[in-house]
Amino acid sequence: MLSLYSLIWTFLISCPMLLLIFILRRRSDYLTKYGVTFISILYIFCTVRMLFPIEFPSHQKVICDPYLYSFLMNLYAKSEDIHKKIVMAVILTIWIIGIIIAVVHKMREWNKVKGYLIKGTSKGDGVAEKILREIDSECPIKIEYNLAIAEPFIKGLRHPVIYLPEKECNEKELEFILMHEYLHWKRKDLWKKFIINIIGMIFWWNPLAYLLCKDLDQIIELNCDNAMSKKYSEMDTLYYLDTLTYMAGGRRANFDKVSSDTLGFVKKLEVRPLKQRFHYVMFKKDDKRTQRKMNLFILGVSVIWFVASYYFILQPKYTMPQVEVYQEDASFVSDDGNSYLEEQKDGSYIFYYAGFTDTVSKEDVESGMYEGYPIIKYNKK
Protein backbone atom coordinates (compact mmCIF):
# COMPACT_ATOMS: atom_id res chain seq x y z
CA MET A 1 0.00 0.00 0.00
CA LEU A 2 1.22 3.47 -0.91
CA SER A 3 0.63 6.21 1.65
CA LEU A 4 2.10 9.51 2.74
CA TYR A 5 3.70 7.73 5.70
CA SER A 6 5.36 5.14 3.41
CA LEU A 7 6.69 7.89 1.12
CA ILE A 8 8.16 9.85 4.01
CA TRP A 9 9.62 6.69 5.58
CA THR A 10 11.24 5.68 2.29
CA PHE A 11 12.84 9.12 2.03
CA LEU A 12 14.07 9.03 5.65
CA ILE A 13 15.46 5.49 5.39
CA SER A 14 17.11 5.95 1.97
CA CYS A 15 18.87 9.27 2.56
CA PRO A 16 21.37 7.92 5.15
CA MET A 17 22.24 5.07 2.76
CA LEU A 18 22.70 7.48 -0.15
CA LEU A 19 24.88 9.68 2.02
CA LEU A 20 26.97 6.65 3.07
CA ILE A 21 27.50 5.68 -0.58
CA PHE A 22 28.45 9.25 -1.41
CA ILE A 23 31.09 9.31 1.36
CA LEU A 24 32.52 5.83 0.71
CA ARG A 25 32.87 6.47 -3.02
CA ARG A 26 35.25 9.33 -2.23
CA ARG A 27 37.43 7.24 0.09
CA SER A 28 40.13 6.09 -2.32
CA ASP A 29 41.83 4.06 0.43
CA TYR A 30 38.68 1.98 0.91
CA LEU A 31 38.30 1.42 -2.82
CA THR A 32 41.91 0.30 -3.30
CA LYS A 33 41.64 -2.16 -0.40
CA TYR A 34 38.13 -3.55 -0.88
CA GLY A 35 37.42 -2.84 -4.57
CA VAL A 36 34.24 -1.21 -5.85
CA THR A 37 31.90 -4.21 -5.75
CA PHE A 38 30.69 -3.39 -2.23
CA ILE A 39 29.71 0.11 -3.42
CA SER A 40 27.74 -1.47 -6.27
CA ILE A 41 25.90 -3.69 -3.78
CA LEU A 42 24.85 -0.64 -1.77
CA TYR A 43 23.73 1.08 -4.98
CA ILE A 44 21.48 -1.85 -5.94
CA PHE A 45 19.74 -2.22 -2.57
CA CYS A 46 19.23 1.52 -2.15
CA THR A 47 17.86 1.87 -5.68
CA VAL A 48 15.36 -0.98 -5.27
CA ARG A 49 14.19 0.41 -1.92
CA MET A 50 13.57 3.84 -3.44
CA LEU A 51 11.64 2.35 -6.35
CA PHE A 52 9.13 0.64 -4.07
CA PRO A 53 8.00 3.16 -1.38
CA ILE A 54 5.20 0.96 -0.08
CA GLU A 55 4.09 -0.37 3.30
CA PHE A 56 2.50 -3.58 4.58
CA PRO A 57 0.25 -2.47 7.49
CA SER A 58 -0.67 -5.98 8.65
CA HIS A 59 2.97 -7.13 8.77
CA GLN A 60 4.76 -4.03 10.05
CA LYS A 61 6.02 -2.79 13.38
CA VAL A 62 5.10 0.85 13.90
CA ILE A 63 7.76 3.14 15.35
CA CYS A 64 5.96 6.00 17.07
CA ASP A 65 7.36 9.46 17.63
CA PRO A 66 5.07 11.42 20.00
CA TYR A 67 7.11 14.61 19.63
CA LEU A 68 8.54 16.19 16.46
CA TYR A 69 7.06 13.87 13.83
CA SER A 70 3.66 13.88 15.54
CA PHE A 71 3.76 17.67 15.71
CA LEU A 72 4.62 17.97 11.99
CA MET A 73 2.00 15.43 10.92
CA ASN A 74 -0.70 16.55 13.35
CA LEU A 75 -2.94 18.23 10.77
CA TYR A 76 -2.74 15.33 8.32
CA ALA A 77 -3.23 12.60 10.94
CA LYS A 78 -6.37 14.21 12.31
CA SER A 79 -7.87 14.92 8.91
CA GLU A 80 -10.78 12.96 7.56
CA ASP A 81 -10.16 10.12 5.09
CA ILE A 82 -11.37 12.14 2.13
CA HIS A 83 -8.93 14.95 2.94
CA LYS A 84 -6.07 12.45 3.26
CA LYS A 85 -6.91 11.09 -0.18
CA ILE A 86 -6.89 14.61 -1.60
CA VAL A 87 -3.45 15.27 -0.10
CA MET A 88 -2.08 12.05 -1.61
CA ALA A 89 -3.63 12.89 -4.98
CA VAL A 90 -2.00 16.35 -4.96
CA ILE A 91 1.40 14.92 -4.01
CA LEU A 92 1.23 12.22 -6.70
CA THR A 93 0.11 14.78 -9.30
CA ILE A 94 3.05 17.08 -8.53
CA TRP A 95 5.38 14.06 -8.59
CA ILE A 96 4.12 12.91 -12.00
CA ILE A 97 4.31 16.43 -13.46
CA GLY A 98 7.90 16.67 -12.20
CA ILE A 99 8.74 13.33 -13.86
CA ILE A 100 7.27 14.52 -17.16
CA ILE A 101 9.31 17.74 -17.00
CA ALA A 102 12.48 15.76 -16.16
CA VAL A 103 11.87 13.37 -19.07
CA VAL A 104 11.30 16.25 -21.50
CA HIS A 105 14.47 17.99 -20.29
CA LYS A 106 16.50 14.77 -20.66
CA MET A 107 15.15 14.11 -24.16
CA ARG A 108 16.03 17.66 -25.21
CA GLU A 109 19.56 17.07 -23.93
CA TRP A 110 19.83 13.82 -25.88
CA ASN A 111 18.50 15.43 -29.06
CA LYS A 112 20.93 18.33 -28.66
CA VAL A 113 23.84 15.89 -28.45
CA LYS A 114 22.51 13.99 -31.46
CA GLY A 115 22.37 17.24 -33.44
CA TYR A 116 25.96 18.15 -32.56
CA LEU A 117 27.21 14.71 -33.52
CA ILE A 118 25.42 14.65 -36.89
CA LYS A 119 26.95 18.00 -37.91
CA GLY A 120 30.61 17.25 -37.21
CA THR A 121 30.88 13.53 -37.98
CA SER A 122 33.50 12.23 -40.42
CA LYS A 123 35.15 8.92 -41.28
CA GLY A 124 38.75 8.13 -40.35
CA ASP A 125 41.56 6.42 -42.21
CA GLY A 126 40.51 2.90 -41.16
CA VAL A 127 43.19 2.37 -38.49
CA ALA A 128 40.71 2.49 -35.61
CA GLU A 129 38.40 0.04 -37.37
CA LYS A 130 41.30 -2.36 -37.89
CA ILE A 131 42.27 -2.22 -34.19
CA LEU A 132 38.66 -2.77 -33.10
CA ARG A 133 38.40 -5.84 -35.35
CA GLU A 134 41.52 -7.22 -33.70
CA ILE A 135 39.90 -6.71 -30.30
CA ASP A 136 36.66 -8.42 -31.38
CA SER A 137 36.05 -9.41 -34.98
CA GLU A 138 32.28 -9.76 -34.40
CA CYS A 139 31.86 -6.49 -32.53
CA PRO A 140 28.91 -4.44 -33.93
CA ILE A 141 30.34 -1.10 -32.75
CA LYS A 142 30.89 1.59 -35.39
CA ILE A 143 33.59 4.27 -35.22
CA GLU A 144 33.22 7.92 -36.21
CA TYR A 145 35.38 11.02 -35.79
CA ASN A 146 33.93 14.36 -34.73
CA LEU A 147 35.33 17.88 -34.52
CA ALA A 148 32.76 18.97 -31.92
CA ILE A 149 33.97 16.70 -29.12
CA ALA A 150 37.04 16.82 -26.89
CA GLU A 151 37.06 13.29 -25.50
CA PRO A 152 36.37 9.81 -26.88
CA PHE A 153 33.10 8.23 -25.80
CA ILE A 154 30.63 5.50 -26.71
CA LYS A 155 26.95 6.19 -27.34
CA GLY A 156 23.94 4.11 -28.30
CA LEU A 157 22.11 1.33 -26.47
CA ARG A 158 20.99 -0.61 -29.53
CA HIS A 159 23.40 0.75 -32.16
CA PRO A 160 26.66 1.59 -30.33
CA VAL A 161 29.07 4.07 -31.87
CA ILE A 162 32.49 5.10 -30.58
CA TYR A 163 33.11 8.80 -31.27
CA LEU A 164 36.74 9.93 -31.47
CA PRO A 165 37.97 13.55 -31.33
CA GLU A 166 40.29 14.97 -33.95
CA LYS A 167 43.31 14.53 -31.71
CA GLU A 168 46.53 12.88 -32.86
CA CYS A 169 47.16 9.46 -31.26
CA ASN A 170 49.54 6.62 -32.03
CA GLU A 171 48.23 3.10 -32.54
CA LYS A 172 48.89 2.00 -28.94
CA GLU A 173 47.02 4.96 -27.48
CA LEU A 174 44.19 4.34 -29.93
CA GLU A 175 44.10 0.70 -28.83
CA PHE A 176 43.71 1.74 -25.16
CA ILE A 177 40.87 4.11 -26.06
CA LEU A 178 39.02 1.56 -28.16
CA MET A 179 39.53 -1.25 -25.63
CA HIS A 180 38.21 0.99 -22.85
CA GLU A 181 35.05 1.89 -24.78
CA TYR A 182 34.64 -1.70 -25.99
CA LEU A 183 34.66 -2.88 -22.35
CA HIS A 184 31.93 -0.34 -21.54
CA TRP A 185 29.82 -1.95 -24.25
CA LYS A 186 30.73 -5.51 -23.23
CA ARG A 187 29.90 -4.83 -19.57
CA LYS A 188 26.50 -3.27 -20.45
CA ASP A 189 27.58 -0.03 -18.75
CA LEU A 190 25.41 2.13 -21.00
CA TRP A 191 22.33 0.19 -19.88
CA LYS A 192 23.33 0.63 -16.24
CA LYS A 193 23.63 4.36 -16.77
CA PHE A 194 20.32 4.47 -18.65
CA ILE A 195 18.51 2.75 -15.75
CA ILE A 196 20.06 5.03 -13.14
CA ASN A 197 19.06 8.06 -15.25
CA ILE A 198 15.46 6.84 -15.22
CA ILE A 199 15.66 6.55 -11.43
CA GLY A 200 17.02 10.09 -11.28
CA MET A 201 14.07 11.34 -13.33
CA ILE A 202 11.60 9.50 -11.09
CA PHE A 203 13.11 10.92 -7.91
CA TRP A 204 13.77 14.40 -9.29
CA TRP A 205 12.84 15.94 -5.93
CA ASN A 206 15.56 14.10 -3.98
CA PRO A 207 18.98 15.86 -4.15
CA LEU A 208 20.75 12.75 -2.87
CA ALA A 209 19.29 10.71 -5.73
CA TYR A 210 20.89 13.27 -8.05
CA LEU A 211 24.25 12.62 -6.37
CA LEU A 212 23.68 8.90 -6.84
CA CYS A 213 23.29 9.41 -10.59
CA LYS A 214 26.28 11.72 -10.77
CA ASP A 215 28.52 9.31 -8.84
CA LEU A 216 27.63 6.34 -11.00
CA ASP A 217 29.91 7.56 -13.82
CA GLN A 218 32.96 7.35 -11.57
CA ILE A 219 32.05 3.88 -10.26
CA ILE A 220 31.63 2.63 -13.84
CA GLU A 221 34.97 4.13 -14.85
CA LEU A 222 36.76 2.59 -11.87
CA ASN A 223 35.34 -0.82 -12.75
CA CYS A 224 36.41 -0.36 -16.35
CA ASP A 225 39.91 0.74 -15.32
CA ASN A 226 40.15 -2.37 -13.17
CA ALA A 227 39.20 -4.55 -16.15
CA MET A 228 41.79 -2.73 -18.30
CA SER A 229 44.58 -3.33 -15.76
CA LYS A 230 43.80 -7.07 -15.83
CA LYS A 231 44.15 -7.19 -19.62
CA TYR A 232 47.54 -5.48 -19.81
CA SER A 233 50.96 -5.78 -18.22
CA GLU A 234 52.16 -3.31 -15.57
CA MET A 235 54.11 -1.28 -18.15
CA ASP A 236 51.15 -1.15 -20.52
CA THR A 237 48.90 -0.17 -17.63
CA LEU A 238 51.20 2.78 -16.90
CA TYR A 239 51.04 3.70 -20.57
CA TYR A 240 47.24 3.48 -20.38
CA LEU A 241 47.25 5.94 -17.45
CA ASP A 242 49.51 8.23 -19.45
CA THR A 243 46.97 8.09 -22.29
CA LEU A 244 44.24 9.11 -19.86
CA THR A 245 46.31 12.17 -18.90
CA TYR A 246 47.02 13.02 -22.53
CA MET A 247 43.34 12.88 -23.49
CA ALA A 248 42.27 14.86 -20.39
CA GLY A 249 44.56 17.78 -21.18
CA GLY A 250 44.33 20.54 -23.75
CA ARG A 251 41.70 23.10 -24.51
CA ARG A 252 37.98 22.40 -24.46
CA ALA A 253 36.26 21.72 -27.78
CA ASN A 254 33.07 23.37 -29.10
CA PHE A 255 31.01 20.56 -27.63
CA ASP A 256 32.74 19.23 -24.53
CA LYS A 257 29.88 18.23 -22.23
CA VAL A 258 28.64 14.86 -23.42
CA SER A 259 25.15 13.85 -22.45
CA SER A 260 23.97 11.43 -19.82
CA ASP A 261 23.53 8.63 -22.37
CA THR A 262 27.27 8.41 -23.16
CA LEU A 263 30.32 6.97 -21.43
CA GLY A 264 33.60 8.75 -22.08
CA PHE A 265 37.25 7.75 -21.88
CA VAL A 266 38.13 10.55 -19.46
CA LYS A 267 36.49 13.79 -18.33
CA LYS A 268 38.15 16.86 -19.77
CA LEU A 269 40.12 18.99 -17.29
CA GLU A 270 38.55 17.35 -14.20
CA VAL A 271 41.46 16.59 -11.89
CA ARG A 272 39.88 14.92 -8.84
CA PRO A 273 38.11 12.06 -10.66
CA LEU A 274 41.25 11.43 -12.70
CA LYS A 275 43.44 11.34 -9.58
CA GLN A 276 41.13 8.79 -7.98
CA ARG A 277 41.28 6.60 -11.08
CA PHE A 278 45.10 6.78 -11.03
CA HIS A 279 45.18 5.94 -7.32
CA TYR A 280 42.81 3.03 -7.76
CA VAL A 281 44.73 1.43 -10.66
CA MET A 282 48.20 1.94 -9.16
CA PHE A 283 47.53 1.02 -5.53
CA LYS A 284 44.59 -1.39 -5.65
CA LYS A 285 45.19 -4.59 -3.71
CA ASP A 286 44.20 -7.87 -5.32
CA ASP A 287 43.44 -9.47 -1.97
CA LYS A 288 40.42 -11.44 -3.13
CA ARG A 289 39.86 -13.01 0.28
CA THR A 290 39.59 -9.64 2.04
CA GLN A 291 37.41 -8.24 -0.74
CA ARG A 292 35.14 -11.29 -0.63
CA LYS A 293 34.69 -10.91 3.12
CA MET A 294 33.88 -7.22 2.71
CA ASN A 295 31.38 -7.94 -0.07
CA LEU A 296 29.65 -10.63 2.01
CA PHE A 297 29.54 -8.31 5.03
CA ILE A 298 28.06 -5.45 2.99
CA LEU A 299 25.59 -7.87 1.38
CA GLY A 300 24.45 -9.10 4.80
CA VAL A 301 24.10 -5.59 6.20
CA SER A 302 22.22 -4.48 3.08
CA VAL A 303 19.76 -7.37 3.33
CA ILE A 304 19.12 -6.62 7.02
CA TRP A 305 18.66 -2.92 6.27
CA PHE A 306 16.36 -3.70 3.34
CA VAL A 307 14.11 -6.08 5.28
CA ALA A 308 14.05 -3.84 8.36
CA SER A 309 13.09 -0.84 6.22
CA TYR A 310 9.88 -2.65 5.25
CA TYR A 311 9.26 -4.28 8.63
CA PHE A 312 9.38 -0.98 10.52
CA ILE A 313 7.60 2.25 9.64
CA LEU A 314 7.59 5.63 11.36
CA GLN A 315 4.22 7.08 12.26
CA PRO A 316 3.05 9.83 14.59
CA LYS A 317 1.70 8.94 18.03
CA TYR A 318 -1.11 10.72 19.79
CA THR A 319 -2.40 10.02 23.26
CA MET A 320 -5.95 8.74 23.26
CA PRO A 321 -7.70 10.40 26.16
CA GLN A 322 -9.84 8.24 28.43
CA VAL A 323 -13.41 8.35 27.19
CA GLU A 324 -16.08 9.18 29.74
CA VAL A 325 -19.54 7.98 28.80
CA TYR A 326 -22.30 9.43 30.91
CA GLN A 327 -25.44 7.36 31.41
CA GLU A 328 -27.99 9.01 33.65
CA ASP A 329 -26.04 9.83 36.84
CA ALA A 330 -23.19 7.37 36.24
CA SER A 331 -20.04 7.80 34.19
CA PHE A 332 -17.90 5.19 32.45
CA VAL A 333 -14.14 5.48 31.88
CA SER A 334 -12.86 3.61 28.81
CA ASP A 335 -9.52 1.79 29.15
CA ASP A 336 -7.85 -1.40 27.90
CA GLY A 337 -9.62 -3.44 30.56
CA ASN A 338 -13.20 -2.75 29.52
CA SER A 339 -12.97 -1.72 25.85
CA TYR A 340 -11.61 -3.23 22.65
CA LEU A 341 -11.38 -2.85 18.87
CA GLU A 342 -12.74 -5.26 16.26
CA GLU A 343 -11.28 -5.20 12.73
CA GLN A 344 -13.76 -5.11 9.84
CA LYS A 345 -13.57 -6.52 6.31
CA ASP A 346 -12.95 -3.07 4.75
CA GLY A 347 -10.01 -2.39 7.09
CA SER A 348 -11.86 -0.09 9.48
CA TYR A 349 -12.51 -0.92 13.15
CA ILE A 350 -15.44 -0.95 15.58
CA PHE A 351 -14.62 0.47 19.02
CA TYR A 352 -16.64 -1.18 21.81
CA TYR A 353 -17.04 0.57 25.16
CA ALA A 354 -19.75 0.48 27.86
CA GLY A 355 -22.24 -1.16 25.57
CA PHE A 356 -21.71 1.49 22.92
CA THR A 357 -19.94 1.21 19.55
CA ASP A 358 -18.10 3.69 17.39
CA THR A 359 -16.56 3.32 13.91
CA VAL A 360 -12.83 4.04 13.81
CA SER A 361 -10.76 4.48 10.63
CA LYS A 362 -7.78 2.31 9.82
CA GLU A 363 -5.49 5.33 9.73
CA ASP A 364 -6.43 6.39 13.28
CA VAL A 365 -5.59 2.93 14.62
CA GLU A 366 -2.28 2.75 12.69
CA SER A 367 -1.29 6.21 13.89
CA GLY A 368 -1.34 4.97 17.49
CA MET A 369 -4.43 6.80 18.72
CA TYR A 370 -5.87 3.54 20.08
CA GLU A 371 -2.61 1.98 21.19
CA GLY A 372 -3.10 -0.27 24.21
CA TYR A 373 -6.62 -1.42 23.39
CA PRO A 374 -7.05 -5.13 22.52
CA ILE A 375 -7.76 -5.79 18.84
CA ILE A 376 -9.82 -8.65 17.48
CA LYS A 377 -8.52 -9.38 13.99
CA TYR A 378 -10.93 -9.90 11.10
CA ASN A 379 -11.52 -13.60 10.38
CA LYS A 380 -11.43 -14.07 6.62
CA LYS A 381 -13.07 -17.50 6.90
Write up this protein:
With 381 residues, the chain is of the alpha/beta class. Helices cover 56% and strands 14% of the residues. It is built from 14 helices and 13 strands. It has helices at residues 4-25, 28-34, 37-51, 68-72, 74-77, 81-120, 127-135, 171-186, 189-202, 207-231, 234-248, 271-283, 288-311, 362-366, and strands at residues 61-65, 121-122, 142-146, 153-155, 161-165, 262-264, 312-316, 324-327, 330-333, 339-343, 349-353, 356-360, 375-376. The protein has a 5-stranded mixed sheet with strand order 2-3-5-4-6. A 4-stranded mixed sheet has the order 12-11-10-13. Strand 8 (324-327) and strand 9 (330-333) form a beta hairpin. Helix 1 packs parallel to helix 10 (207-231), helix 7 packs across helix 8 (171-186) and helix 9 packs antiparallel against helix 10. The protein is elongated and about 95 Å long. The mean pLDDT is 83.
Q: What's the oligomerization state?
A: single chain
Total helical elements = 14
Spatial sequence of strands, sheet with the most strands: 2-3-5-4-6
Helix content: 55-70%
Shape descriptor reads: elongated
The N- and C-terminal alpha carbons lie at a distance of 23 Å
Mind summarizing the main beta sheet?
A: 5 strands, mixed
Overall structural class, as computed from helix and strand content, comes to: alpha/beta
Q: What is the residue-mean pLDDT, rounded to a whole number?
A: 83
Q: Which segments are poorly predicted (pLDDT under 50) over 5 or more consecutive residues? A: none
Percentage of residues in DSSP E strands: 5-15%
Order of helical and strand elements: HHHEHHHEHEEEHHHHEHHEEEEEEHE
Instruction: Report the radius of gyration as a whole number of Å.
Output: 29 Å
Q: Total strand count, please?
A: 13
